[in-house]
Design a protein that fits this description.
By secondary structure, the chain is an all-alpha fold. It has one domain: nmb1532 protein domain like (Four Helix Bundle (Hemerythrin (Met), subunit A), Up-down Bundle). 71% of the residues lie in helices and 0% in strands. It contains five helices and no strands. The two termini are 31 Å apart.
């Protein structure tokens, strides 16, 4: 089954492109777990990725993209953000076995959240918001610092 790339509104493209980095984040966690990398190393990476990518991305979505509409689909995305933040916080002080489970859970939460936004929420917002609202969102996002397109975390535990 062939899947076509999703055509995204130019006004939301910045956030949509950042989702690629998020999916890579999930893959890196899963690779680390699969290769038996210590949970401490993977947790350090999750802290790095949160502070350099996810935290700002969530803030931009919540304050810019989600602000014009507070419907059930938007509320679901906000709830996902809370679950992801909670899981990240729960990693601190976890035993190695508990941390493995929480890291796998984190990768699944982020992956599912990104796919939800790309497949359901963003198309919904593109249909529901007016052209004027989408244009304003695009202007606000464009005025922000560009997000780093790669992460420069030194410990590349996901590479053999």
């Amino acid at each position: 089954m062939e899947t076509k790339p999703i055509k995204r509104s130019e006004h939301m493209l910045k956030l949509s492109k950042e989702h690629h980095s998020g999916l890579l984040f999930c893959w890196k966690i899963r690779q680390g777990l699969k290769r038996g990398v210590t949970t401490e190393r993977i947790i350090k990476y999750t802290q790095y990725f949160w502070s350099h990518h996810l935290d700002e991305h969530f803030r931009e979505e919540e304050t810019i993209l989600f602000s014009p509409l507070k419907d059930e689909l938007v509320q679901r995305a906000i709830e996902h953000h809370k679950q992801i933040k909670h899981t990240l916080g729960a990693l601190q002080g976890s035993s190695a076995d508990d941390a493995k489970q929480k890291l796998a859970q984190l990768a699944n939460l982020v992956d599912d959240h990104i796919r939800y936004e790309e497949r359901k929420l963003f198309p919904h917002l593109e249909k529901t918001l007016s052209d004027e609202q989408l244009n304003k969102i695009g202007q606000q996002l464009a005025a922000l610092q560009p997000s780093p397109s790669t992460d420069d975390f030194e410990d590349q535990f996901w590479v053999k």
